[in-house]
């Protein structure tokens, strides 16, 4: 991963071909908008998808957090850390509550704490995560809206609970392969072919989840991080501009692949989605059980932690299979 990032950051901008004029987008939902395309949800749209759920079957689309889990440390971000603050025997020895041996031997007390980067495990990127030229989605500027304790606009606390139609697009299955090639860039044609084989059509306001197969390696951080596949600009533009989907997700580390496909932007998919189009996305999902059972359409339900001012937050998404009436 570090080698790939070093290569990405060293690529000279003079090699850029057909550079686009990138600029932050202005929200069609008004000057105060902080959630972008999540505005596409309504009470009616939520009820419509929930009314199609005919089974109690539930798929958990999140991964576990543990010491040694995969994370994007190459730029110096902290790894996941866990430590015990109280243990049953330690409480007897230390007597922190002042209640003595008899009470602490009877009441076994365990407490713990964690420290982590917000962009690890299954999480959703808020719209302040990446911007362009000092501004983020809807023209909010770092000079005016970023304080010592986080962003005053588009922080993770603004992300609403998400209920929508979900579609999983299984790229390895479409290609009759267990694994995609190293650093493979999933394009629009790949998505269209997979959808054709799955006999599924996308709808405006969908949550679209891309399976690369990388989640199989989640317990092995080295393998999970090594030259993983991801989506390209061509594909996300087709999803957002042509299909008008609301939210995206994938089972890899950073949604897009490295090294970057453009020399003038090291995260072109991130800035296109977050800064230009106001589209959030979910990373490091677990889609293997959906793939195993060939569940491609479902009610998608998720809610993230309200981390004030943060650029991301842990998310616990679930899928409830639906059966069309």
How would you characterize the overall build of this protein?
The chain has 325 residues and is α/β, with parallel strands linked by helices. The chain is 25% helix and 18% strand. It has 11 helices and 15 strands. Strands 1-15-13-7-9-11-12-4-14 form a 9-stranded mixed β-sheet. It has a two-stranded antiparallel sheet with strand order 2-3. A two-stranded antiparallel sheet has the order 5-6. Helix 10 links the parallel strand 11 and strand 12. Helix 3 runs antiparallel to helix 4 and helix 7 crosses helix 9. 40% of the residues are buried. About 4% of the residues have low confidence.
Low-confidence stretches: 6-18
The profile of the biggest β sheet is: 9 strands, mixed
Approximate shape: globular
| Helicity range | 10-25%
Helix-strand string = HHEEHHEEHEEEHEHEHEHEHEHEEE
Question: What topology, given as strand order, has the largest sheet?
Answer: 1-15-13-7-9-11-12-4-14
Q: How many beta-strand elements?
A: 15
- SS-derived structural category: alpha/beta
Spatial separation of the terminal alpha carbons = 46 Å
Q: Average pLDDT across residues?
A: 93
Structural Rg? 21 Å
With helices defined by DSSP (H or I, 4 residues minimum), what is the helix count? 11
């Amino acid at each position: 991963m570090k080698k790939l990032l070093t290569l990405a950051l060293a690529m000279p901008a003079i090699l850029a071909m057909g550079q686009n004029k990138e600029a932050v987008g202005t929200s069609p939902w008004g000057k105060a908008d902080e959630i972008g395309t999540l505005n596409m949800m309504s009470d009616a749209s939520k009820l419509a998808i929930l009314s199609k759920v005919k089974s109690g079957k539930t798929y958990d689309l999140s991964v576990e957090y543990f010491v040694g889990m995969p994370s994007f440390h190459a730029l110096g971000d902290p790894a996941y850390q866990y430590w015990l603050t109280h243990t049953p025997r330690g409480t007897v020895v230390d007597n922190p509550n002042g209640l003595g041996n008899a009470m602490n031997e009877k009441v076994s007390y365990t407490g713990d704490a964690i420290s982590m980067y917000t962009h690890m495990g299954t999480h959703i990127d808020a719209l302040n995560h990446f911007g362009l030229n000092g501004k983020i989605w809807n023209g909010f500027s770092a000079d005016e809206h970023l304080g010592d304790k986080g962003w005053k606009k588009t922080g993770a606390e603004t992300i609403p609970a998400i209920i929508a139609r979900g579609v999983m697009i299984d790229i390895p299955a479409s290609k009759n392969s267990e694994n995609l090639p190293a650093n493979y860039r999933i394009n629009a044609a790949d998505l269209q072919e997979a959808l054709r084989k799955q006999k599924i059509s996308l709808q405006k306001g969908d949550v679209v989840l891309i399976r690369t197969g990388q989640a199989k390696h989640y317990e092995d951080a080295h393998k999970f991080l090594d030259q993983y596949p991801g989506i390209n600009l061509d594909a996300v533009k087709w999803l957002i501009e042509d299909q008008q989907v609301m939210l995206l997700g994938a089972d890899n580390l950073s949604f897009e692949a490295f090294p970057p496909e453009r020399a003038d932007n090291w995260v072109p998919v991130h800035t296109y989605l977050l800064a230009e189009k106001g589209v959030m996305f979910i990373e490091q999902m677990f889609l293997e059980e959906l793939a195993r059972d060939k569940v491609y359409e479902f009610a998608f339900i998720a809610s993230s932690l309200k981390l004030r001012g943060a650029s991301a937050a842990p998310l616990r998404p679930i899928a409830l299979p639906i059966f069309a009436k």
